[in-house]
Design brief:
The complex is a heterotrimer of chains A (about 110), B (about 400) and C (about 190).
Chain A (H helix, E strand, L loop, with lengths): L5 H4 L15 E2 L15 E5 L10 H4 L7 E2 L2 E2 L12 H5 L5 E5 L7
Chain B lengths: L2 E5 L1 H12 L3 E4 L7 H11 L6 E4 L3 H14 L3 E5 L1 H6 L1 H9 L5 E6 L13 H5 L6 E4 L3 H15 L8 E6 L7 E6 L2 H8 L15 E2 L6 H33 L6 E4 L6 E5 L3 H14 L4 E6 L1 E3 L3 H8 L4 E6 L10 H10 L7 E6 L9 H15 L7 E3 L5
Parallel strand pairs in B: 2-3, 2-4, 4-5, 5-7, 6-7, 11-12, 11-14, 14-15, 15-16
Antiparallel strand pairs in B: 1-8, 6-13, 10-12
Helix pairs in contact in B: 1-2, 1-7, 3-5, 7-9, 10-13, 11-12
Chain C lengths: L1 E8 L4 H14 L3 E6 L9 E9 L14 E4 L19 E5 L4 H7 L6 E5 L1 H8 L6 H12 L4 H15 L5 H16 L1 E2 L1
Parallel strand pairs in C: 1-4, 4-5, 5-6
Antiparallel strand pairs in C: 1-3, 2-3, 6-7
Helix pairs in contact in C: 1-4, 3-4, 3-6, 4-6, 5-6
The chains are: A alpha+beta (about 110), B alpha/beta (about 400), C alpha/beta (about 190).
């Protein structure tokens, strides 16, 4: 089997005939299907008023969870942010802070 | 028009490669396969091929380069022997599991200890579980013909597995013999253009090759490889039939020689098969019902064909050109007995380990071995495994 | 089938001679094998090379233990190697030597068969200007084995030299003179 959207359909329940030949991965950006945000134990908070949009934060994010549009960053992609806190460390302006995660269940 | 020629097994394989004209060859020299990349680089310098020849710094790199090239979407080939194949080891498995139809000219040489440059099958037999298809060649003609069929088998959509064409180092690789060489155009049309369905350098489709696979998927991927190897049997048969129709030279999973009414038979691979056939002829003249089966395809293992060929034999010598060090015989012995078990239990067998490190196997050695098989048939008890053609 | 065993020393070209013989016999339509026995390659070490020539396809792939003919490229070998081992009843030895015929017979006192002596070194020195005994020895071997006529052999060799020495045609004449002389030069002792 192959195809651009195939990776989305492959799950641990897929039979051997449903997997791609040689475990090849088709289509770019498949990691978007994997919600690593569920792994987060600390949440980042972004303070738009302190942010100078220097963009030191987005290239160090291991999970590409800081969207940048038109040269300005936006709020975190919480579906994929794992809460590592690297962005908070590099921010020179105190525009990002980390705190214990508020999971849906705890709210 | 085909032409009569004479050349060594290495030159025959190099000629096949020139006619096929692969896109990439990555190789590192090692005796006795060194001549193959030497010929290729001469062809390249003489403008006879436009293959990209990558002179790598090790066999590990040679197979890595082949994997990269094949994944990118082109025909990739290499040649090696013995310790060179051993240095490729990890990558042999990667090539097979990534389902890349790389073709290797393997020139069998003892895999060392004590160091030795002569023929036996310990190098490719060590790689028998790597997921590569393995074809074994009796002489220069078969090495050439197997090479012409290699890509058709490996690249078949039901297969997509790497393939090695094996021949015995020095015994055939360096012996000049008569051979029939097919016309360049005929070879090109038989082998055909390579048009992979999926490849890395396709601008219309993104693709990642060789990912990590967690336990939840790994076994299913291996099950796919099993399927491909099983289906390779039919593909080998179909490609061989097409080749036979074109050239008149017959190939199957195995070759049966004077087996119709044979009581006693030997099963073996590669160069000693011809020597064995001469022994069979001598014994037939004396009224001994001797026969020979030469296995051409070791991977996939053709167990049905073997059972069919051997089921009526009374005593069988299974001949391994590598020990395997199971303490009870070599790999051909183990797998053949496994094939016969429950399906041809009447066949008495001895597993002979012979020809290690270039030990010569003469017609007289085969005659002595058949004499022993006669005693086995007549009820004498023999060890299940023994070494033949050596000093006690 | 004719089986020939060559004895020489590493670097003397016994292997090349065996491959040349395979070439010329092939050119007459025969089935051929030409192969050396390989090991660690060391200049001066005793080596053997082999030929099988037959009208039928050749299947056997082993060394030759009962040759029809033995060729000794370097006569000093006879002191350490039993070159006559296993020669067939009607077989013969062809040896490159400058010795008197009576002395050559004495070297192989126990060998009952025919012995042919040829001073290939002397012939090559005079015709090619170097000690390259292969080519004259090959001529002697072909004549003694009787696998082809003089005319066929000379014709084939000329073709082969023209191909091999296309870039230096001046050496062709010397080589042709060497094989013409050698064809007649082997004497039975």
């Amino acid at each position: 089997m192959s195809g651009k959207n195939l990776m989305e359909k492959i799950t641990p329940a897929s039979g051997w005939r449903e997997l791609t030949v040689g475990a090849a991965v088709y289509g770019e950006g498949n990691s978007v299907f994997f919600n690593t945000g569920e792994w987060r134990s600390e949440d980042p908070a972004w303070y738009a008023d302190k942010c100078r949009h220097c963009l030191l934060c987005f290239p160090v994010c291991p999970d590409s969870s800081i969207p940048v549009v038109g040269g300005k960053r936006r709020d975190f992609d919480f579906g994929h942010c794992k809460g590592c806190g690297i962005c908070a460390k590099v921010c020179p302006f105190g525009a990002i802070s980390m705190s214990a995660a508020e999971k849906e269940a705890a709210k | 028009m085909s032409r009569r020629d004479r050349m060594s097994g290495n030159e025959a394989v190099a000629t096949a490669i020139r006619q096929i004209g692969p896109d990439v060859i990555a190789a590192f020299p090692i005796t006795p396969s060194t001549e193959i990349p030497q010929y290729i680089s001469s062809y390249k310098s003489d403008g006879l091929i436009d293959t990209e020849f990558v002179a790598v710094e090790s066999e590990h790199s040679a197979m890595s380069a082949c994997i990269g090239a094949s994944a990118a979407g082109v025909r990739a080939m290499t040649a090696t022997s013995s310790a060179g194949m051993a240095l490729m080891y990890e990558l042999l498995y990667v090539a097979a599991s990534d389902r890349l139809p790389i073709v290797m000219a393997a020139v069998n040489r003892a895999l060392t200890g004590p160091i030795n440059i002569n023929a036996d099958h310990s190098d490719s037999m060590g790689a028998r579980d790597s997921g590569w298809i393995q074809l074994y060649s009796e002489n220069a003609q078969e090495a050439y013909d197997n090479m012409l069929m290699a890509h058709r088998i490996a690249e078949h959509p039901d297969v997509l597995l790497p393939l090695m064409v094996c021949q015995d180092g020095f015994i055939t690789s360096h012996a000049v013999e008569n051979i029939v060489i097919e016309d360049d155009e005929l070879v090109k049309s038989f082998v055909g253009e390579y048009r992979p369905e999926k490849y890395l350098l396709n601008p219309r489709e993104s693709l990642g090759v060789g990912p990590y696979s967690v336990s939840a998927f790994y076994m299913e991927i291996k099950r796919q490889q099993f399927e491909a190897m099983s289906k390779a049997r039919a593909v080998v048969a179909a490609v061989s039939a097409e080749f036979s129709a074109l050239t008149g030279r017959e190939y199957g999973m195995l070759e049966k020689y004077r087996m119709d009414d044979a009581d006693l038979a030997v099963l073996l691979m590669s160069s000693s098969a011809g020597t064995g056939k001469d022994a069979v002829d001598r014994l037939r003249e004396k009224g001994v019902k001797a026969g020979l089966v030469k296995l051409r395809v070791f991977r996939p293992f053709p167990e049905d064909d073997l059972v069919e060929a051997l089921k009526d034999v009374k005593a069988l010598g299974i001949m391994d050109k590598s020990d395997g060090f199971s303490g009870c015989g070599g790999p051909l012995g183990a797998e053949t007995r496994s094939a016969l078990y429950g399906r041809a239990d009447g066949v008495k067998t001895v597993n002979y380990v012979y020809g290690l490190g270039g030990r010569d196997a003469r017609v007289e050695d085969f005659e002595a071995l058949f004499e022993e098989l006669g005693r086995l048939r007549d009820g004498e008890s023999l060890p299940r495994c023994r070494h033949h053609g050596m000093r006690e | 089938m004719i089986e020939i065993r060559w004895h020489g020393r590493g670097g003397q070209g016994a292997k090349t001679a065996a491959l040349l013989l395979a070439d010329v016999a092939f050119a007459t339509g025969m089935h051929v094998q030409g192969f050396p026995e390989y090991g660690p390659e060391r200049m001066g070490a005793p080596i053997t090379a082999y030929n099988r020539l037959d009208a039928k396809p050749i299947r056997v792939h082993s060394n030759i233990y009962s040759p029809d003919f033995v060729v000794v490229v370097d006569e000093s070998l006879v002191e350490t190697v039993d070159v006559a081992a296993g020669i067939k009843k009607n077989g013969a030895i062809i040896i490159n030597t400058g010795k008197e015929p009576s002395k050559v017979r004495k070297i192989f006192a126990k060998f009952p068969g025919d012995i042919y002596a040829i001073d290939a070194r002397d012939i090559s020195q005079r015709t090619v200007g170097k000690n390259l005994p292969n080519t004259p020895l090959l001529a002697a071997v072909v004549r003694v084995c009787g696998v082809m006529s003089e005319q066929e052999f000379i014709g084939n060799m000329e073709e082969s030299f023209k191909h091999k020495f296309a870039a230096k045609p001046e050496v062709i004449e010397g080589n042709m003179a060497a094989i013409r002389e050698a064809w007649k030069g082997a004497v039975r002792v």
